[in-house]
Amino acid sequence: MITKKSLFVVFTFIFGFGIQAQKFEELALTPPMGWNSWNKFACDINEEMIRGIADAMVESGMKEAGYKYIVIDDCWHGRRDSFGFIYPDSTRFPNGMKALADYVHSKGLKLGIYSDAGTETCAGYPGSRGYEYQDALQYAKWGIDYLKYDWCNTENINPVGAYTTMRDALYKAGRPVVFSMCEWGNNEPWKWAEDIAHLWRTTGDIFICWDCKHEHEGGWYSWGVMKILDMQEGLRKYAGPGHWNDPDMLEVGNGMSVNEDRAHFSMWAMLAAPLIAGNDLRNMSEETIEILTNEEVIAVDQDSLGVQGFKYSSKDSLETWFKPLDNNEWAVCFLNRRAEPAVVEFDWENENVVDEIFGYEAKFNEITYAIRNLWTRKNIGKTKRAFKATVPSHDVIMLRLKPLK
User: Could you say which of 301, 329, 363 is where a domain stops?
Assistant: First the structure.
């Protein structure tokens, strides 16, 4: 039953009475780390499974490695009530979202949820268009910490306005929420979303393959890991603490080779990308756990400087990438995109590595660096000597350089 009191609460919330809406600052100062249900499970989700994923995140060592968000993607929705408030599907989530959030929080983790800026989600469930403020209030009531906000069924609406409306609604609801825009890069969100969201998708969906594109019914595509990597060209100047380019979730553990998974994870770390796992955490191989919990590679992604890496050179599908790090350190990644092993020879003192956008310079001819291999976890010498090694097919050698006094 609608009462005068309930109408006053909604009216006060929507109009704000002097509250200046904005995005929540001091969130996502490093790229968010967590897990999302879509890549592995799509609509096959329920409360028991999400609880199991939270348990596995703790037991596998992923929480200790820095992962904290458990994000429920599409298909959790039930119906709206007479006030327009959304509720979860009672069959999939019989105890409700508040109880699930409480469970996730009890593990020292945070709960994320999914909605869409259009009339319906991509899977055909109720979208948030016209209900942004009711949805934000409901998420706050449930204890939601992260919102992935999609872009299906948004014909003839302005993306800046649509995403700003949800940003404002989340802020007025009062609970700090990491706001993840999933607009697919269609309207170049990197140019306008810094004050709206904490991260924004730069491409369409990722697909479980090294370098392919996958056509869906209706003529749209998903993209392999290397295809998405190439789509990041020219975007690094827009990213930094609190506002990240998002090349989509990880496919590590979902069917590619160990080499490809390792390269995928390494390159996302070099991109300072959100590290959102998309596999079944309850059933992981030792190799998958080792990749997802490599704290030295994660440290490159989570570096406080917040500078995205850049491609320094490319020859015969062997790429060399550099990423400036705090304390005048550097990450280096040699990426072999070929189907055969590749020999890398890199004479540090003859290379002029300069980050022309952010102004960092390695100065190998003046500074000697200690070299650590981040996947073998071994110190392997100094930059006084040229580096020579063989990079396996579809794999990387990833190094960290620390200046010596």
Answer: 301
Please indicate, yes or no, whether residues 194 and 107 belong to a single structural domain of this protein: yes
Q: Report, as an integer, the average pLDDT of 390-403.
A: 98
> Could you tell me if 236 and 372 lie in one domain?
no
**Within this chain, do residues 70 and 210 fall inside the same structural domain, yes or no?**
yes
> Average per-residue pLDDT in the chain?
95
Task: Report pLDDT digits (tens) over 190-222.
Answer: 999 999 999 999 999 999 999 999 888 888 899
| Residue 205 a catalytic site member | yes
- What mean pLDDT do residues 283-296 have? 98
Stated as kind and residue range, the H or E segment containing 41 is helix 38-41
Residue after which a domain boundary falls, among 266, 301, 336: 301
Write down the pLDDT at residue 200.
98
Per-residue H/E/C for 222-233 = EECHHHHHHCCC
Catalytic residue list contains 326: no
Say how many C-beta atoms besides its own lie within 10 A of residue 393's C-beta: 16
CATH code at position 330: 2.60.40.1180
Q: Catalytic pick from 205, 246, 280, 303?
A: 205
pLDDT in tens, 109-139: 999 999 999 999 999 999 999 999 999 999 9
Domain that holds residue 357: 310-403
Question: Which of 150, 246, 248, 395 is flagged as catalytic?
Answer: 150
> What CATH number is given to the structural domain containing 221?
3.20.20.70
CA distance 193 to 399: 32
pTM over the 0.90 mark: yes
Query: What are the angstrom distances between the C-alpha of 41 and each of 114, 142, 196, 229, 276?
Result: 14, 23, 29, 24, 14
CB 122 within 8 A of CB 74: yes
